[in-house]
Amino acid sequence: MAYQISDACIACGSCVEGCPVEAISMGDGKYEINEELCVECGACESVCPVGAPAQK
Ligand code: SF4
Ligand code: SF4
Question: What is the residue with the minimal CA distance to atom 6 of ligand 1?
Answer without folding.
Answer: 44
